[in-house]
Design brief:
With about 80 residues, this protein is mainly alpha-helical. Helices cover about 55% and strands about 0% of the residues. It has helices at about 15-20, 25-30, 35-55, 55-70.
Length: about 80
């Protein structure tokens, strides 16, 4: 906690209670209310979980390749001979 924020009479930290409306942690890092974001996207997440739960390996691979290409990455085949075991 910031210096001089503890109430010497009862040991409670008043800084956080007085500044509870200030963004902290992930809220500050991401620049938005993380709890609100999660609530807004929870249903979409649950639908995606159900979709991918029953997929075959081929569907998972195609989905991963699609996600990679959406961000400009090109999947490369794995050279098994280059692996050091």
């Amino acid at each position: 906690p910031p210096p001089n924020t503890t109430d010497s009479h009862n040991g409670n930290n008043n800084f956080y209670m007085q500044n509870a409306d200030l963004p902290v942690g992930l809220d500050r890092l991401l620049g938005r209310d993380v709890n609100a974001y999660v609530e807004e996207h929870a249903e979409k997440y649950e639908r995606a979980v159900e979709r991918w739960k029953g997929c075959t390996m081929e569907e998972w691979i195609a989905g991963a390749e699609g996600a990679l290409s959406a961000f400009g990455f090109q999947p490369r085949p794995l050279n098994v001979n280059a692996l050091i075991l």
